[in-house]
Design brief:
binds 2-OXO-4-methylpentanoic acid; 2 domains; binds pyridoxal-5'-phosphate; nine-stranded mixed β-sheet
Amino acid sequence: MDGTTPQMFAIEKSPNPVAAEAREAILANPGFGRVFTDHMATIRYTDERGWHDAKIEPRRPLAVDPATTVLHYAQEIFEGLKAYRLPDGGATLFRPLANARRFRKSAIRLAMPELPEELFVQSVHALVSTDRDWIPSGDGASLYLRPFLIADEVFLGVKPSHSYLYCVIACPVGAYFKGGAPSVTIWVSDTYTRAAPGGTGEAKCGGNYAASLVAQAEASREGCDQVVFLDAVERRYIEELGGMNVFFVFEDGSLQTPPLGGTILPGITRDSLITRARGMGLTVREEAYSIDQWQEDARSGRLREAFACGTAAVVTPIGHVKGKRHNFAIGNGGAGDVTQRLKDALIQIQLGLADDPNGWRDRVF
Ligand code: PLP
Ligand code: COI
């Protein structure tokens, strides 16, 4: 299998897809991550055969032996990207090749086989095309795609698996935060860190998220929506949120975001916003910023806005920051001008409502 033609996905249509009326009711109010489309894409890998058996098949439970490697040692990676309904009724993906590249890099870090980037993109195209009726068109709605790769050898020895299952599932989604929150409150974790130098912070592997949950639970107990992690070495510098990157906006209109350096997920939204902001004539620095400085700047007014960004959350203003040693509001607690302008610019490109100078849209049909 050379991974060059979409036709290589054998298509088995679901014998009992969700009825049109029930699907439309779901699409009108999809929530996030609880309802799924009728099909999934799958590709198998073994050391002997390489990547093979690419399929679009009815979405169904996976049969896994209790001794399957991934259940014990978490050899797993995933991605998240969205398909958007275009004004002419077609559909587009946003930078799927960037997700394919990150998926390959995550695979290398987790000692997994690298899925060819064209095959990743084709799998997503094939699924979106098959489940095209599931792409919502409402405000802030899209079809969220979740490609993932799991080690499926049945063996309890600690070593890279010899066989893997790649799968893509899809779900219609609305806003990630309940009620499309105008701004979120974040909790500074003093106790837990997310990633240390040499660890897996820049890989999108399930283990990173498992390790973040206790901090996220602490955030919820403290009445916050998300947790923000500090660097593991000095416990001073802002890294990122549990599932989003972070930006700061200053009184002179410049932006700053923590630099990538192995411990932060290189977000595609982050990269897109840096490019768009610079295209709009704004200054963007990729420089470390400490939590104490953030508090001081927010209180003095030097810092005007802050926002979180990612595929699921798009651009979400941060209104308030709390922690054991910190407590401060940002600006007026809602979306600032720069945040709103950047968010609008990004969404307009994603929805096909603005020019796409960087060629980020990838039309599916
Ligand atoms: N950081 C983490 C830990 C994430 O899970 C995500 C979401 O994918 C991001 C940042 C943002 O990445 P992207 O913009 O590629 O979705
Ligand atoms: C995404 O934005 O795609 C994420 O992966 C964040 C979260 C849903 C895990």
